[in-house]
User: Fold these one by one.
Assistant:
Number 1:
Amino acid sequence: MTTTNRQLWLSVTQAAEVAQRHPVTVRKALAEEKLHGHQRAAGASWRIHADCLEAWLRNEPCPCAAAPTGVTQLHGAKAAS
Ligand SMILES: [Zn+2]
């Protein structure tokens, strides 16, 4: 196990870098709901959780769906600003 100090929430650009995919591919996956992302409002910029991104890369179900307890909190967390 590696302990990297990576960010938990990624923008589309960052997610594309981490995933080594084209940003267009990431956006498409978000639009098709293959990749779990979050928007503060419709049309707002996407935020992708690192765990969700990893699940997508591995072609695995999103950890939020697999483990509703705990992880849901992350996704249910309201934006402070
Ligand atoms: Zn998720």
Note: Residues 68-74, 76-81 have pLDDT under 50 and may be disordered.
Number 2:
Amino acid sequence: MWRFGQRAGWSAVLVLLGGFPLAQGDEPATEPSIAKTGEQVASRCAECHGEDGQSRNSDIPSIAGFSMLATMDLLDTYRMGLRAARAVELPDGTKTDMVEVAESLSDADEWAVVIHYANQQWQPHEQAFDAELARQGAEIHAEKCDRCHYDGGRDPESDLPITAGQWRDYLVAEFDNFDAGRRAMSDKMREKYDTLSAAEKRAIIELYVSAGEY
Ligand code: HEC
Ligand code: HEC
């Protein structure tokens, strides 16, 4: 399947390294340095994605708790030109975007940072939503989207970006990007996505914003 195959071999190794909180005292020798590198790299991401991957800016996605495979695949989409990136100005006045960020990461830094975020906790953003619309969205999602975006977009085990409780402004922008072709999607997702009316897309966004709490 699209982009997933090449990672499958060593993702199991990463799960062993990063899937569990570090036990004090008995971790393998490699873990502290990976954890430390992960923190250092993540401190650069934090300028936009917030401390611990909880974004304070509704235009920028939270990434805490994304699985390692999910974050790696998302970084790849930028490198491969499958997704246009928006430039963001940093506090020091310089600008950068996700293509530059992804291209600047060495393999070692990337491993460390994806492990770092997989070990953080996803926290849905509390946002106002229309419960009735969210319920409609849940039905459509169960039929068309849940087989990949498990449990209404909540389950990191899907190895996809968590969408349940993501910022509304960001989600609306990404649906627009898909619609306008600024962001590619796999043929299998397109098959389902292209059957959605504009109203159904709004309902699914409402489901995501509700984080399943409708
Ligand atoms: C200058 C700001 C900025 C920095 C620094 C930055 N990001 Fe991003 N990131 C964004 C923005 C904005 C988006 C979403 C919009 C877009 O694609 O341009 C994004 C999207 C992402 C996504 C996709 C999320 C999703 O739900 O699809 C991932 C994963 C990600 N960033 C990881 C990282 C990592 C890891 C780092 C640090 C190595 C990092 N980012 C540094 C601004 C930034
Ligand atoms: C065959 C599996 C599959 C199906 C079915 C599927 N998706 Fe996806 N979806 C993906 C993949 C893979 C990505 C990551 C794409 C990328 O890396 O840019 C994704 C990404 C997304 C994102 C971007 C989230 C973010 O934070 O970046 C949204 C929104 C989304 N899908 C919505 C939907 C909706 C709505 C449906 C149902 C109509 C759907 N998807 C059906 C596989 C699927």
Note: Residues 1-13 have pLDDT under 50 and may be disordered.
